């Protein structure tokens, strides 16, 4: 139905206004005319038409700018906008739709295409209005300074583009997940007054979250987990672990927000319903009607942060997969060789003590033959767990061979390395016994630079291997250092 529908037609060509205006009136529409962009905005804000038709090339303000202004103002935000232009390049059509137009019709497409597009958009608007209450808008008689509003909009868009560009640079530069999260938190603190924010990576396996806190805030990790789950539908929550079991990486940055000011939680689901990416939550100063506080901008900001940090997270996981043994969770032999060589090179000039332990499971083949390979895998997983729990942050362990493992200890002399090897052996024997893995034991060989040899990877590994060989020859289930190993020892 066209009865009572008003269309604002803005075009700097009198001929176009006359021809298109008559065609619209012939279909029963009331037509308002504007000969430039500034007049179009003023009429739209004052008269609130049912649809706006815009040319692109107009004096004082072009059609793209008019479309953006109409979309930015509450009173005209839901009015359908059609750009009618002689420009037919793909870039022009893209920019028109990005500016907020509901449709882009070229003048060469003809009158019938334009009229059918107008009728369709008016019908769709009528259905959407019947579906729910109309949004609150400003009173038509309320006057606005069009140029001031345009400048404000352009400044806001520049602000948003600058922030999003810096997030893009963050994504391009960083390959360390925690460091990327720290930088993201620092950047976010420049545009939002927040205490804590969180991201949920819903498509991760397993699902995991990130919490960024400014200083030592009183907000608990559990509170962030619960807020991240709040905006998700019940059918999605049914497939997720309870909040307490949700993995959460916590990153803290410097700074704080005045806790005496009112604080408000805001939560958003990120992505579309069929392909939900995750969620975002933030606790900060209650929003005021100023830059950076509107919900759509917050959603855009959260999506860009999500993308940057998800890329960093995935890169970290891929890198971890590339350098980690899948069964035991310790590093693989390739990583061990590279890292051990670097440590030797770093420690050599100052003759800093550097120890290596070679640890081997005794009678591993007999275990596999007797209890099966699943038992063997269980024993190796337990070994990897013990190594990860026992080592300091600067030390590392790697799977050197099938059931042979290497442990590298920085700034550790021979005596300290032997003590650790003995502690590892005893812990392994107890853990294996509790798991019912036969009477399993391990043997260890220790070599230390510069006590037993120079800071050369091949030399130290050969000395540790000789010590391990001696431990096997002397009955297994023991630790031997390179100092005590006999070069002529043979395995029994």
Fold and architecture overview:
With 492 residues, the protein is of the alpha/beta class. It has 15 helices and 15 strands. The protein has helices spanning 14-26, 37-47, 63-72, 90-98, 111-131, 146-173, 177-191, 221-229, 234-237, 295-323, 333-347, 364-371, 373-390, 414-434, 457-473; strands at 6-10, 30-34, 51-54, 81-85, 103-106, 194-201, 208-214, 248-253, 263-272, 275-285, 354-361, 396-399, 404-410, 442-449, 479-481. The strands form three sheets. Strands 2-1-3-4-5 form a five-stranded parallel sheet, with helices on both faces. Strands 8-7-6-10-9 form a five-stranded mixed sheet, sandwiched between helices. It has a five-stranded mixed sheet with strand order 12-13-11-14-15, with helices on both faces. A hairpin with a 4-residue loop joins strand 12 (396-399) and strand 13 (404-410). Helix 7 packs antiparallel against helix 10 (295-323). The longest helix has 29 residues, at 295-323. The chain is elongated, with a radius of gyration of 34 Å. The N and C termini lie far apart (98 Å).
Mean pLDDT: 85
**Rg measurement, Å:** 34 Å
Beta-strand content: 15-25%
Unreliable segments of 5+ consecutive residues: 130-143, 488-492
Tally of DSSP β-strands:
15
- In DSSP terms (H or I, runs of 4 or more residues), the helix count works out at 15
Provide a brief overview of the structure.
This protein is an alpha/beta fold.
